[in-house]
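Students often ask why inverse folding is considered easier than folding. One informal answer: many sequences map to the same fold, so there is more than one right answer. In these notes we will look at a single instance of the problem. The structure comes first.
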């Protein structure tokens, strides 16, 4: 395309895919979420006996990468990349696009933007242990490709022949939202027609869990098990680490209509900001996420009170939930008390770099099915968190416009706005 002034194009979502603690397909995950069931339970991937401080997580269950990807492909991929590859396969099949649908796209106009907050940490830990025990000659020659985050979109693009922009965004827990938002702008302004966008993470390891626990980010309410993640509850004491990923297919409205694709929703707003404040703590009052929401609302050309549902970052940490509540009051004013807000992390746990993309999928499914996911485990409301958090049970409601927030370590914030497709 010319480098002259570009005309903005409408961007829609035509495919969804996920591997998550609440289900390894979108229909399974959505049914679990609407039922208010959790994917949180005892850690099974490593030994947490003795004085290990955290014994719970939200693990992916019944995942067979060799069966889904083929043994030859799967054995040279980190678990985080396996999740993304399977999620991308589902999303592309849902959109009737990719290698199994010849002629469905122009390779040079199709890209991949799937990020990870940490990358192939499981492969790194495994090879570090091998190095210390057996020496450098036993370190896998595949370690680097399995470790670096950009091989997630790299492998997806190779698998499906997408030759457009392909790279990984890395912004901790905001990664998924940034990936989707940047893909949206890339398509909107004419640099690609189709992008697989999302996030993934597989960081339930001894080292990672110890690190998060020692910085006092994780819940240590091990005795509560599935009830330990309690966003907006007075007794909340930290997030529950999770694994998994999700991918969405973004394409121009014109391209989608030309191939008669099923359109789930339109993406209409994206805001990205930085707190420039602290490596882990949000600014008091949520100034950064406030600006992100306002930027997204401005681009979407909707009034704040038109937002019908907010999927909150909602980590179940004392500072985040209080700060996010204040931010919603700042952006929505009096309407904040009537706009439903929920945290699906109460059921999925916190997927870190995969969180935003999974929550975007859930926002879109909420719009399609006119159903708001609940915040489970909300038993003792925090007086400082006094909005409508849809406690414990899903709710039927028309949702023409939804908003999803993500906030990452380093003060990085990203907001997405979706709308039911209009003429």
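Output (designed amino acids):
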């Amino acid at each position: 395309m010319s480098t002259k002034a570009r005309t903005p194009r409408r961007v829609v979502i035509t495919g969804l895919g996920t591997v998550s603690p609440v289900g390894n397909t979108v229909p399974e995950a959505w049914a679990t979420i609407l039922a208010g069931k959790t994917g949180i339970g005892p850690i099974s991937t490593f030994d947490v006996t003795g004085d290990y401080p955290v014994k719970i997580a939200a693990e992916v269950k019944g995942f067979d990468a060799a069966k889904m990807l083929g043994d030859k492909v799967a054995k040279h991929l980190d678990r985080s990349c396996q999740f993304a590859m399977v999620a991308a396969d589902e999303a592309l099949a849902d959109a009737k696009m990719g290698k199994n649908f010849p002629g469905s796209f122009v390779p040079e106009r199709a890209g991949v933007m799937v990020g990870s907050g940490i990358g192939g940490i499981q492969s790194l830990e495994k090879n570090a242990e091998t190095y210390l025990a057996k020496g450098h000659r036993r370190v896998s020659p595949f370690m680097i490709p399995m470790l670096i985050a950009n091989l997630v979109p790299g492998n997806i693009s190779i698998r499906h022949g997408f030759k457009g922009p392909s790279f990984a965004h890395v912004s901790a827990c905001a990664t998924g939202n940034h990936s989707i938002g940047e893909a949206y702008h890339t398509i909107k302004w004419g640099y690609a027609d189709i992008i697989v966008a999302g996030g993934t993470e597989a960081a339930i390891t001894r080292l990672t869990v110890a690190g998060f626990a020692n910085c006092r980010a994780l819940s240590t309410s091990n005795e509560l098990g599935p009830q330990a993640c309690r966003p907006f509850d007075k007794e909340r004491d930290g997030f529950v680490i999770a694994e998994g990923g999700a991918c969405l297919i973004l394409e121009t409205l014109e391209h989608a209509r030309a191939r008669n694709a099923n359109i789930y929703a339109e993406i209409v707003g994206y805001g990205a900001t930085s707190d420039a404040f602290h490596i882990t703590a949000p600014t008091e009052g949520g100034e950064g996420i406030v600006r992100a929401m306002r930027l997204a609302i401005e681009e979407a050309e909707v009034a704040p009170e038109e937002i019908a549902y907010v999927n909150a970052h909602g980590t179940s940490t004392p500072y985040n939930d209080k700060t996010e509540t204040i931010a919603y009051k700042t952006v929505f004013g009096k309407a904040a008390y009537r706009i439903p807000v929920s945290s699906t992390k109460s059921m999925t746990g916190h997927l870190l770099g995969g969180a935003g993309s999974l929550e975007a999928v859930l926002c879109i499914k909420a719009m399609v099915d006119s159903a708001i996911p609940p915040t489970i485990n909300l038993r003792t409301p925090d007086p400082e968190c006094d909005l409508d958090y849809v406690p414990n049970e899903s709710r039927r409601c028309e949702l023409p416009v939804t908003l999803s927030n993500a906030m990452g370590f380093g003060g990085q914030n990203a907001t997405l706005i979706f709308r039911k497709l209009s003429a």
